[in-house]
Each structure stands twice: as C-alpha cells, then as structure tokens.
User: Fold these one by one.
Assistant:
Number 1:
Amino acid sequence: MTSQVRRLFRYRLLIHSLVSRELKARYRGSVLGFLWSFINPLLMLLIYGIVFGYVLVGQRSKSVEPWFLFLFCGILPWTWFQASIAEGSGSLIAGGNLIKKVLFPAEILPTVTVFTNLFQFLLGLPFLLAFLVYEGKLSATTLLLPLPILVQLVFTLGLALLVSALTVHFRDLQSILAHVLHLWFFATPIIYPYVDQTGRLRSVLRLNPLTHVVVSYQQMLFDGNFTDWRGLLGAAVVALLLFSAGSALFDRLRDTLAEEV
Amino acid sequence: MTPDEPAVDARDVAKVYRRFLHKNQFKTLKSAIVTGSLLGDLSPDQTFTALDDVSFEVRQGSTFGVIGENGSGKSTLLKLLAGITKPTRGSLAVRGRVSALIELGAGFHPEISGRENVAINGIMLGLSRREVEERFDEIVAFAEMERFIDAPVKTYSSGMYARLGFAVAIHVDPDVLLIDEVLAVGDEAFTRKCLDKIGEFRRRGKTILIVSHSLGLVEKMCDDALWLRGGRVADRGDPKRVIDAYLTYVAGGEDALLAGAQGQAPPTAGPAPAGPGDEADRHGYREGRWGGREIEITGVRLLDDRGRERHVYVPGETLTISLAFHAEEPQEDFVFGFGLFTADGVNVYGTNTHIEEFEAKGIQGDGSLSLVLSDLALVEGTYLIDVAVHKKDGTPYDYLRGLQSFRVKSRIKDVGVHRPRHRWTFSAAAELDPPAARAELDLHGDEESK
C-alpha cells in the first residue's frame, strides 16, 4: 500500500495535468461550463424534491429542517463517490491506448477519475456553504470537513482501483455496477436521516462505511455538532483496508492489463 | 551508468501471453463469486509464446535494428523494452531514460488544444513541467504546427497528429530511443526530417533501437541487427549479413508458396478455377489451359543457372524455362511459344519459334526444349508465364496460360517493368555519394553473386 501511495505521489504532476485536462475537456463546448459541477447535484435535489413534495407526500422525515439542505449535504459527496466509481470502472478500458502504447502506470487512470470528481465536489461545496449561511446553519464544525473528505477519498480510491482492474477482465461488472450503486445510494442515509432509523435497519446501515462518512458531513454541516467520531474512525479503517486490497489486486493484475484492455 | 555497460541487456527473455477466453471468463466470474476464489481463478486458458530465449546487447550509442516477418515478436520486444509489459522469464535491463515512438500521439485528448496536449504528453513521457516549457517552442517548430497549436486536437489531420506526436517524443531527449515503424507516417518531407533528427541522435551518441520492415533503413542506419523468427533470435550481427540471411529465408518461403500454387494447376483443358486476384479483369488475361493436345505439354519447370527449380529470382539472374512435351502422332505444323506477363496482365514479352524463323520439320514422342533468359531484366514483382504449342495459324495443341509464375525480388525499388542494365556517371559538378558497395552491385544486377 505504501508503495502505491509513493507511486501516486511520484506521478502527482501527471495526475494533476490529467485532472485539469479532464475538467477542461469535460465542459468544453457546453454553455454552462463548470457550473455543471453544481447543477448536477442540484438537479438530483430537484428530483427528490418532486418525489417527496408531490408523490410521497408526508413520507419524508420531519426531524430535519430545512429538509432540502439536509439532502444537499448528503447528495453532494455521494455524487463524488458515485461518479468516481461509475467512471472509474471503465477508465482503464477507455484509456487502453495509453496503457498499451505509452509507458504509463495504469492506476493513474482510475485515480484521475476520482480526483476529477473530487474537484467537482469541491467546486460545488461553496454553493452548499452559501445555502447554509443563508439558512443561518453554518457552524464551526465545518472546519472538520477535511476529515470525512480524506476518508471518502481513500475509500473511493481503493474501490476505484479494485473495480477498474476487475472490469478489464469482467466487462459485465460495469453493467452490474450501476445497479449496485443505485442500491448503495438508498442503503446510505442520504434522503433520510440516520437518527430516524431503529432496530435491524439501523444495524445494517451501520455496517455501511459510507453511512458514517455521510453522517459526518451531515453533522458537521447541517447539525453543527459532530458526534460520530467512532463511526468515522471505523470508516477510515475500512477505507485503508479497501485501499490496500485495491492496490494489491491492481498489482496482481497489472501485467495483464496492457494485454487485456 | 558507465560507458562500457550496454544500454540494453536482454538475457533469455521470454514473453508468454495468456488468453482469457470470454466464454470461460463468464464461468470464471460466476465461480469466482460462488466460491470466492477470485484471485485463484484468474488463470489463463491458453498461452502463446511471443518471445522465447531472446538474448542480445545493445551497446551505448549504437543503432540497433530488429527485423522479422509480421508476428515474429518485434512489437512485443519493443513493448518489453519500453517497460509497457514485463518479460515472463529472463531479465531485461534498459539503462537511461527511454522514449518509445510506438504510437505517435497516443494519449492526445481530442477536445483540448495542441498546446495543452503537448504539455501533458511531455509529462507523460517523463519530462518535468519546466522541461516542457523550455522545449515547447522547439517542439512546435519541429512539428510545423505554429498556426494550429491552439486549436483542439480533434481538428487536426492525421499527419498533423503524427507530426506533433513525433515532435514531443523526440524532444523528451531520451538516452534510449525506441522506434517502431513510425516513420511510415507523414509525408516525405517530414519523414526526411525525422530521419535527420534520428541521425542527429546518433551523432550525439544516443542509443537507438529500430523495429522496421524497411530493410534499406536498417541497413543504412544500424550498426547491428537482430532477426526474429517466430519469437526466437534467428540471427544477429552485421546488418548486411543478417538482412541477406533474412532475404534468403523469405525468398525460400515464397519459393515454396509459388511452387505449391503451381502444383494445383488444372491438369485438363478449360478455364482455370478463379484464384485470388483472378476476378480482376487483368486486361482480359485469364489463366487457363486449352487445345486439342495432339502435342501435349507434360511439364514446365523454371530453373536457375545451376539447374535447380526455383520461383524467386533477383534481377540479372538467368532463368531457364524447360518444357517437356509428348506428341502421340507425328506432326509437321507446330510452333512453340512463350509469353511473359506481369501479375496484372500486361504483356512484357512474347515470342515463338515461328516468329524467330525456326523451320518446323517434325515432332513425335517425348522430348523437351528450353528457353534461356540469360539476363532477367525485370523490376521487382510477380510474373506469369504462357507456354504453348500450336499450329502456324494459331490453332492450339496445348496452351498453358499463366499457370506458371515466378517472382523477382530486389532491394532497389525502381519502377516500371523492364530494368535495362544500366549505370550512372556524373561530371565533377554534381557531387553524389555512391551507394553502399552492396547497392552498387544491385544496380548491375549481380545480387545473386553474394
């Protein structure tokens, strides 16, 4: 794992260039440009607003107000995670030319995807903070944000390494993944507050590392009172394990990648 | 890096590719999920040895050529040298910064400008940001892309794309430069520019490894050559000698191929079955055999000056066409004819015993005759032969059209059909370096004497 970190660090300049290229290329030719980083989660918010405002009226939790803002706190980091994994799984195949024709450490490709989406997340964050200020919710715990961001980064990187290498061998994975991520979304307390859940459902949710990451965001941003230290620490341990596993598998499959993509 | 250490040192290198069959892959995923043995089950179904037992050294500052047929492992070797894949067995050491011209502009992103792509490509190939900035103008000037450098790469022509890719790769200033047939891209002027740049590299004492089908290039530029055949080293050493050995081998293979095709010539009259290339009209030329067989051609052989049957020749050699015939009844009116055609049906030459004013007296039983072409003054290509025996008025006894073929091979790529024996002379005002001694011989058509 440390060798993996060292390798990524050694190639930081390349990762940096590729991330900025990706960001530039992504919105080139679109009218709204980088605003999309913000509009994407906003549109998702709108969908849930419609669903809970008109379809499932009265179904949403009354314990968090304003509910919209609560939703935003969870959806923004989720978008980062979801997009990283969905794009990351296909990143080696999409960048196959690089792996095959240029001396190129393959793990850079999924890493670039994760960091590109991290930047989108960071670009969206000021909008969220502005809303929080508007609602008078901004508190000192916001300063703790780097912690869940770091945990999420390691977790996402590990998973992206894992799925990207496996997808090269099992292309089916990409199709399955969309549904897994969909389910994962609902298995993470984003559109409902974790505190409302009781019994078995709560113990199941507790096993999901992203639950604690998202709850940390919500507590730091929305509640202004961060209490889930233990949960976040547990998630951090899981994230490190996942990153080690992802790196190990990636190393194991490294030599086959250039031949299989 | 001490000067006497080789720049590339390969010892018993082998590369075995593993193939994962897709049907079994699905089974693997299923069983992987069921049994949870994901890592253990990622085992190959089939292996393919692309390289085996390959050992060689490349001296620092030398230019090294790798030749071989398609599929002989050249590109695999290059990928190993570039570090893109790892050898399965053996050891491979490459000393110094490596830049590989395997695919030009691999990694260019179509949506962003040439400027940004140069920066990223340079970093990808191992430059620091400062180095990229320092060399940027030089790269753009070399690629002759000043006017377009800020346009998105997707608007570039393929030539522009390759030029920019080459320019970046060559300005990485590697210690070892790997080149894979990339000089085939671009127009002639740019190719010459690339060759000049490579020449400059050689003068500066850089190590270059070229994989090429262009034997002329390898012979001209390389200090050493390696010939790969079926993933193994067939020969290595002096480029001239290696190339000769390779050409002889290739000619031998083609010989067998052409001879094999002739074995399938239709033994009876009627139009020949449509072979490859036959559907093309070929100026109305169609292989076949017809005639009443009162006199039958029972065999045709193409012989070299030592009487061996051969189907590949070099210009200037002697080719003997030997006919065996059988005449059941005595005949008095007969003419033996011969025609030579290019593969696309252009008549190169034709003659017969009547045209050349031989008086036919009589023929009966089994016999033979030969036509000796003492100087095969032809350019490279495949040639078809007509042999026939017919009456003076043209009524055929036995007419074999295009059923025999032979190939002329030459390293001089002159054009046309006929190669007159020739030489060049220049007055003092025109200064030209003579071709390498070997090439001189070719012009005079004495290649076989080697």
Number 2:
Amino acid sequence: MTVNVSERPRAVHGGERPVRSRDPGWRIVAEQECRDLWVSGRGPVLVFAFSVLLSVMTYLAGTNQVLNFLEQREAVNLTLQVAVAVGVLVTLVVSADAISGERERGTLESLLLTPVSRRAIVMGKLVAALSLWLATFLVSVPYVWVLGRGVSIVGPAILLGLLVGTLLAVALSALGLLISALSSSNKVSLAVCFFLLLALFAPTQLPGGGPKGWFGDMLVRLNPVGAALRYLTAVVVNGHDWTRDLSYLVSPLVTAVLAGGALVIAGSRIVRLHGGVSGE
Amino acid sequence: MAGVSLEVVRLTKRYGPRTAVEELSFTAHRGEVVGLLGANGAGKTTTIRLLTTVLQPTSGAFSVAGVPFTRPAEIRRRVGVLPESAGYPGHQSGSDYLRYHARLFGLGRPEAARVAGRLLADVGLEERASSRISTYSRGMRQRLGIARALVNAPPVVFLDEPTLGLDPAGQRQVLGIVRDIAVRRGTTVILSTHALPDVEEVCTRVLILDKGRVLISGTVGEVTATVAAQRYGQLRVPIELVSPARRALAGVAGLTVEAPDERPDVLRISLPAGVGGEQDHPERGMNLALRAVLNADVPVLSFEVEGARLSDAFLTMTGDGVR
C-alpha cells in the first residue's frame, strides 16, 4: 500500500494563527471523558448495579414501613443516605482510576503532549466523575419519592440530598484524583481510595451510631461522610430547620475546598508521566 | 540560523545521582530526518520527553521553531510526538481519537473532523476510520499514532521507535510515511530507533547516544567513515575462475584473501582501513580489489561488502550496543 502524507497546512504551522476553538481545554477533556464513561465505559454498568442495590434497599425499607418498624421519614432518610453514600463511592472509584489508570494504559503521555494544561486535564476529569454522581442521584429520586409519597418531606429531602451529596462528591472526587495522581500504580490508587471510603463510611453504620457524648460528636463532625449523613438525618427525620445544623457541613466543605484547592494549585505538578511521590 | 527548527544547547537531565542525558547539543533543520541512535538506556526516550516538555531539564536549553523551552505550552503546539509504547483507547474509533486530539490542539469541531479525515487518508486508514482502535493491528495503531502526531501540523515531529514490533511490510509503510512527512510537509523528524537499516534508509543525519552523551553526529556516510573498522568483502565468481581471481587479488597490496571451505565459489577479502591510501574512505580499497578482478577478465557474480554499514559504526562506538 502506498501512503502519501499531504503537505502541511500553512494555517496551523508554527507561529501562524491556527483555526482555534473557543472551548476551554477542561471542557474538551470533560466531554471526551464523559463520552468514554457513558457511551462505552463503566458508567451504565455502575448505575445499573446501583439501581439494583437501591431497589433492594427500597423494598426492605418499604416492607419495614408497612410493618410499622420504620417511620416514613426514616425510610426516606435511609434510602437517601444509601443513595448519597453509594453514589459518592462510585464517583470516588472512577476518580481513583482517572489518572493512574491512564498512566498504566499508556494514554496519559499523549494527553500531556497537548497544549491543554495539566490543571485543565484534572478539572475535566473531575467534571466527568461528578457526572456519575449526578446520574446515580437521578436514579435514586423515584425510589425516594415512592417511599415518601404523601408527606411533605420528599421535595426538600431530594433537594437536600442533591446539595449535600454534590458537596461530598466534589470533596471525595477531588481526593480520589489527588490519590490517583500521586499513586505509583492503579492498584495502589484504588486500594487507598477503597480504604478511605471504608474508613469514612463504616463509622456511620456502627450499631447505635458509635461513641456518644462530645467525643462521639467530634468524631462525627470530623468525618465528612458521617457529618453529611448526620445533617441529612437531622433535617429529614428530626424535622430540624435546614439552617440549624449547618455546622455539620463544615468538614465536607473544608474537605472539598482543601482537596479541590490542592488539585487546582498542585495539579500541574502532580499530574506526571510517572506515578509516586518522588520527583520526576 | 535560517531553517533551524530545533536547537538544543547543553541539555542535561539528572535523576538524583544518575545522569540520563548529559550536555546534549545539536540543531535540526527544516525537512531533515535526524536519527537518534543508542542502546537501551542511552537516553533517547528521555531526550524526546525533554524536548516535548513532558519532563523538565535539570539544565541546558532548547527551542522549537524559535520558541524557547520556558514556554512549554507553546512548544507543545509546535511538536508532534509518537511516544514509545503509546497506548490507545480501544473503545474509540480512529476518527474519534484524532478528532479529540485535534480539538485538544485548539481546532474547532468542523476543522477537527476535516483534519482527522485527511490524516487518516494520509496514513492509509481511511477505510477503518470508524472502526474501534481495539480492532486495529499494531501497524495500523502505529500509523494512527503518527497521524495523531500530525494533527497540529507541527514543524517538528518526534517518533520514538515507530517500527518496533512491525512486520517488514508495516515497517516499509511507516518509513514511507516518515519520508513523506519530511519531504512533502517540510517537517523536521527526530527518529529514535534501534533499527539501523531504517536509519540508513530515511535519515539525513544521525546522532549516536551512549549513557546520555552524544558520541558522534553527522550524515550516515560521515558516521560510518569515522570507524576505522576492518572491512570484509564476499566476492562470488564462477567456480572454475576462482584461481585467476585469487591471483588478481594477490596483486593488491594489503588484502588478505581466503576461500571458505563451505562455499568454493566465494572468496572472502579482508581489508584493513587505509588500504588504497584513503584513510577516510576505506571502501575505495574494495574498489581496487574489484577492479583487479575485472581487469583479469573474471566475471563477478556478486560482491557484498561487510563492515561498512552504520551498524558497524554503532557497535564499535557503543561497545556492542548491548545493555
């Protein structure tokens, strides 16, 4: 076969002005990452698995509600908490693979060779990971509505779940990307992220809610997942005004600001061809 | 200097106590194909990663098309790269892949689609444009990688082992594309490879690296000539004329002639460098030998010179080239 490479178009050569797109780099990366995730990737599979889990949870909550073991508000809260926690889990998993996975598949180098800044690459990946959180939350809306129909809490609960969950998803997704960028391999990145999620989520599932008193309260407040779920419970189950327990959202907010800030500030240094914490 | 696309001045990269590239200096001009040779670990890939801003140099400087290395994003707009062992997203089609990369280089959607289509045609992947990359052969992936390196129409292209793992037909295709990139587009190509015949075939200039340093640079002929290696020639004549041929060769000073037992129609000629009074062109000594045989009216069936190839220079300079 004969191949002929056409002459170099002058318009895109060297210092001459190329035909530029107005789209920022992060948006182009985010679009492609979303396409990879949703059209031919893991997105639909993860959302399907999530909906199966939520169906089981909703069935159990529904039957307990019928048997008067669970109040309607508690059933809504339980489903909302599962939606938030698991939605954030899958977002974290996707983030954990985002950089270290590309590095191992050999596709990161070609991305680093483009004029798009490393910070923009990370931001694009963050947006794509958050699309998974939004999808899982959308899936959970009908379940919450079914369990809470007839009571006025459903609308506010869904809105609150979206806001709190998004805050938590941003925080953990940014953390996942930081871990992914700094990990020496994809396995290490996934293992650290799973451990992180276990460490944050397990205390919220302790029988009786874990340690009591000021120490227990401090532990809950320090844990962004625990604090966010406690806030949801306070509003949805206890009927508190949404402003009353806002202090519980300090740790998710601080985590989101710190991890997101670290990504923005250090993104250009930590997204490298070789993983690990040592210099390149 | 006019026509200089790439200028490298005392470029150095150290990893702690280990020096990967040391004081590397060279220039490359428009339309040149510069071969970067060296054994494993010689610093070829590190050099390419430095010049494409993936790695930061410890010291030294370089510029691409006049843009200094202190503006990495602008450098990346002006280079195209086929990395060594490049990975490809198997679920994307070749067309999607190129469109995405064209957009990352700032092209709008319609322009990106147009460039992708043209480049796929250029590298002979037009018919497989919408197939998933996972269905591509290795040779097709390499050609796709070369097309990706051209999406921004760069003045300088770096190709790291582009023929690695390809069958002879695939190698020929890729080398044809490399030649076309330089000749038709006027692009400077920096070709890192272990395949020395590839270099002899397409490179206008060669740099041999060893332990991060340039051992020698020049044209293939210049590099080969600097090695005062003993030359060998295999002369095949009609079997009944072997004796007259030997007598004719005996008249050429400095030649050693042997007749291998396993091939009675072949004479093996050894020629120390400098025979014929041409220290810098020892191949002329072989001409003297050949002329002597022809003057004796002995027909030459074949004549093959050994030890005058780039591989000999490479092996001599890098100590056997094995790491």
Number 3:
Amino acid sequence: MKKIEAIIKPHRLDEVKEALSALGVAGMTVTDVRGYGRQKGHTEIYRGAEYTVDFVPKVKVEIVVDDSVATVAEDAIVSAARTEKIGDGKVFIYDCESAVRIRTGERGPEAL
Amino acid sequence: MADINVGDTAFIIICSALVLFMTPGLALFYAGMVRKKNVLSTTMHSFFAMGLVSVLWAVVGYTIAFGSADGPMGKYIGSFSKVLLKGVAFGVTGVDGHLIPESVFAMFQGMFAIITVGLITGAIAERMKFKAYVIFAAIWVLVVYSPLAHWVWGGGWLGMAGLGALDFAGGTVVHIASAAAALAAAIVLGRRKDYGSSAVQPHNLPMTILGAGILWFGWFGFNAGSELAADGVAGTAFMVTHLAAAAGMLGWLVAETIQHGKPTSLGAASGAVAGLVAITPASGFVDVVPGLLIGAAAGVACYFGVQLKNRFKLDDALDVVGIHGVGGTLGALLTGVFASTAINAAGADGSLAQVGKQAVGIGAAWIFSFVVSFIVLKAIDATMGVRVDAEVEETGLDLSDHAETGYVL
C-alpha cells in the first residue's frame, strides 16, 4: 500500500476529489493547512500599512491506495490540481505498512 | 413635572438608547481587528464599561460633571449635591418649552461617559491586564471625563458659560480626551511583542464592519440628541452627521487607492468613523457643504494619521489617536471655521477668534487628559503592573484573564 499526500490550491480540491473518485479511490482525508514554498507569501494592507503574509492557505489531501493504483492516482492528482501558475503545490508518496478498518477489523488492502 | 415637553422627552430617551448601542458596536469594531486569541478580552474592554461606568456615573460621576457650577470651584468641577443622582428623579432640565426630565438627561450623558472609556481601549488591546484596566477606567471616568464634561457642558470655564469654545456633541470631551488617554496608554504599556509583523493582522473584518455600521447608526442619537430637543437643530445635526460619515468613507478610500492601488473594507469602515468623529463637535452648528467637507477632510487626514504611529514606533494598536485624536482635533478646529448662527442661534459664527477659542479647548483637553492619564497609568504600573507577562501575551488574554476562548471550531 502507498500513502499519497498532496498539498494543493484550495480551489482545486473538487477537481482532485472527482479525479480520484473516478479511479475508484474510496476515501480521503482533507485538512486546511498553511505553508510556503517557492510561491512565498503575499502582501496584505491594513490602514495603509503593508504586511507580508508568509504562510498562504493550502489544502492537504491524504489517501492510502493499493500499490497498483498509486502511480495512476498520483497522475490524476497532478493533472487535476495543475493550473501552471506558481503555488500549485506538491505530491508526496510513502510506503504504508498497515491499515485496519476499525468497524470490522479487516486488514491490509481489504481495509481501504 | 407638568412642564416637560413630551416630544423632546421621547426623543432623548430613544437617543440615549442609540448612544448606549454604540458601545457593543465599538466592541465589535475593535474585536474584529485583534487576533482571535484576544477577541473576548477586547470585547470586554468596551462591554464591561457599560457596567462599571454606569454605576460610577450614578454614584458620583454625574454630579462632578453636571452638579451646580456656582460655588468657588464651580468653573472646574460640579458640586457634590447630586451624589447617587439625588433628586434627579424629580428634576427637569433644558430651556423653556423644551424641558425634559433630569433623569433622562442624566442617563443620556451617562451613555457618553461609557463609550468614551470604551474608545480608549483600542490602544491597550492584546496586552493590558484586565484588572489594571478596571482600576484605570474607574479612576479615569471620575478624574478626567467627568471634570472635562463639566468644563465644556456643565457650566465650566471652557464651554458656552465660559470661554465659548464650541463642542456640540463631544469632539473635545469624548474624542480628544479618549485619544489623549490612548496615547498615554500606548506609551506606558509599550509595544506588543509581534508589533509590526504580519502576526497582528485582523482576525474578523466582517465583525469590524458590522461594528462600524452600529456606530454610524448610534451616532445619530449621539449628535442629534445633543441638541436635547426634537427641533430643527437636531434635524440639521442628523443630516450633517450622516453626510460627514459618507464623505469620510469616500475620502479615506480615495487616499488609500492613490497610495496602495486598492480600496480596503477596513478603510471604508475606518473612513466612515473618521467622518463621524470630525463632525461630532460641528454637528448642530454647520450646514451641508461644511458637513461634507469636514467628513471628507477627516477621511483623508485620518488615513495619514493612522500611519504616524509607524513613524513614532508607538503601538496604538487600533488607532485611537490616528482616528479620534486627528479627527477630533480637525473637527473641533473646523467648527470654529464653519459654525453659523443661521443654523444654530445658540452657537457662534466662524471667525479667526472662534478658531482661537477652539484651539484653547483642544489644547486643554489634550493636555489635561494626557497628563492625568499618564500619571494614573504609571501609578497602576508601579503597584500592580499594567502589562501581562510575555507568555500570557503569546497564549492570548481570553484564556489568561477571562478563562474562556472566543471560538471553539
């Protein structure tokens, strides 16, 4: 099994979710996060004073999939999240040692 | 009490309620501009004044401000004959044909004392110990606000009974007095740890804008009600108050757009408040065009005024000096330029001499409030300390001083 963690632009979340659903990915976890990469931050102005905000809002999507699906899922996320502008985000893939469905006790890919 | 004017009485009761409503409006206005860990602390600064100041006003504040001005010290402080509002339930006040119950007058004036204390708290946001604030507010309303109200409106040396400085609804008593105290507080407290960094950005601007809207709404009671009668002067005050707020918003946004390219929502709210502040002393004395000019000038002047603190590295956190100090001073001066006896026969006509009188009133309010506030704050700092420790400032004052959090999400 592989765990895929994608940091994406918030407004691409629906497209990413649709693309993964189409591949049969059965669940995901989504978190609002803040961070910066090459995009760096942005400027905000309050009462004439400029402030540089370093951390920009992003969405983190986490899914766990069977090894056979991992590359396809990765490609699906990349193409759904891409706007070709700076700040599109990143995708990370890790090995996942085990998974348990709490309700039934099923283990491994069966639990996904 | 057979001689009271029922129309005027009804009007001033409603205006009193409008002025009270400004204080929770101010709480929203300020609380939206702080970080979420201090939303309740900042709200309480204003809201709590409704409790504290009301009681103190009844006990002794009212008599200091509006007790008899006869007697040897009468030019500076009212007599103590109305402690605990003695006899106020049976008194009447006002001019012939426009008498209202003194109970209504005392409550109307008490609402002004509440919001004036609330206004100061923009400067102490996010770092003053709540208990130290309570002591400061209690002393301040009795030793600064009440005597100053006496000087200007209670028959004292500065107002129409003395020098003749014009202040229709509180440019000096409310706005300059609160700004001078705010300046003293910003100096004594020092800067917040995160001053000047992006960490101090406002956490909820829609809340601030709703607060500004409530202030605008309540300000009609504040200014029109200050005529103490439902007559033509009240009508003019209402009209120019509204127009100055509108022009203030436009003035601020134009200046901001020229400097930074984008009109901000906080700028729209701040500009409207700046216009309202500046028209306060002038409302009831000026016509439409001066009203528009005063509002627009205040919008521009306060926009640059709020940026002064960055030059002086002072942490007047929510810009009490930049808006109420600059706007109040500008409005009080321009009252001396634009006042017209055609609008209000009880006022004066604009002249260089009147501007001079206005300048004396402005200077007196700035110096008196600043010096006394500074001494009181230093004394509190020497005994119990005015500032929370660094760890509390990091965690937020909601939890440390009130054992609550504003948002559970």
